Amino acid sequence: MGIPVDTTRSIVICGGSPEAMVDRSTGQPRTDATGAQLWRLWLVLIGDDEPVVMRVKTPKEPKGLVKGQPVNVAGLVASNWTTPDGKDVDLYNAVSVDPARTAREAS
Fold first, then answer.
1. Domain containing residue 58: CATH number
2. What is the pLDDT of residues 28-42, one digit of tens each?
3. Which entry of 42, 43, 61, 77 is 20 to 30 Å from 90 by CA?
4. Is 4 in contact with 73 (CB distance < 8 Å)?
5. Angstrom distance (rounded) from CA 71 to CA 69
6. pLDDT digit string (tens) for 1-56?
7. 26 domain residue, yes or no
8. What pTM was estimated for this model as a whole?
């Protein structure tokens, strides 16, 4: 279980092109429990504190994103685990990541 991340008062920027996740041992696409293809991409969250760079995993293909573009993130959850060698790892999952609508598009 993770901690929900509220992005409503932050700017979130796409840090690179989305890539399909692949199982390293089989070469097959990685999927979630529902069978949906998993995708990952880098995002930068800019809020009141220091910026946070996150590698986010999502089951909905992020389409139409380019580096530096503002995005909307739905259902962002952060979690943490410790590897067997004692290293802490932060994990980020989202329901979806979509291009943010500009003021012109919204009107």
1. 2.40.50
2. 999 999 999 999 999
3. 61
4. no
5. 6
6. 799 999 999 999 999 999 999 999 999 999 999 999 999 999 999 998 899 999 99
7. yes
8. 0.86
